[in-house]
Amino acid sequence: MPNIAAVICLIAVGRHSDRTLERRYHSALLCLVAAGGLTMIGLFTNHPLYAFLGLVLGTMGGVSAIAPFWQFPPMLLAGTAAAGGIALINSIGSFSGWVAPFAIGWLRDTTGTTSTGLYVVAGLEVLAAVLILAFMPRQDRFTGKV
Known about the structure:
The protein has one domain (2-135). It has seven helices and no strands. It has helices spanning 2-20, 24-43, 48-64, 66-69, 72-76, 80-111, 115-135. 27% of the residues are buried.
């Protein structure tokens, strides 16, 4: 169910983002949705229905934020610089895919609850939203230029 909802949201967000040529708010808002979902999972561990809703929101936000996000490197960089920027983003993403499970496990062992790790990842999602809004330029709706 969470993955089906995420795919539907991904397609809808991608289409709307392409139609409006607006990437910043689409990506940032979905990072905040992911953060809210992760926070809900941590807060409602004893309420399965609410925790499941948090899982659906967290998955939808995390997966759907990617579509507008990947429009930033070609918008800002050209040629080999765009290729280098994409490679850097992929490298950081791969590294975080190794570090995040380790950190969440360490936080679980330290605090005795998985919720702490979820809150940290939710905080990183909020940080991502803030950075996107602060540093990504707006794209002109009619010309497509930054």
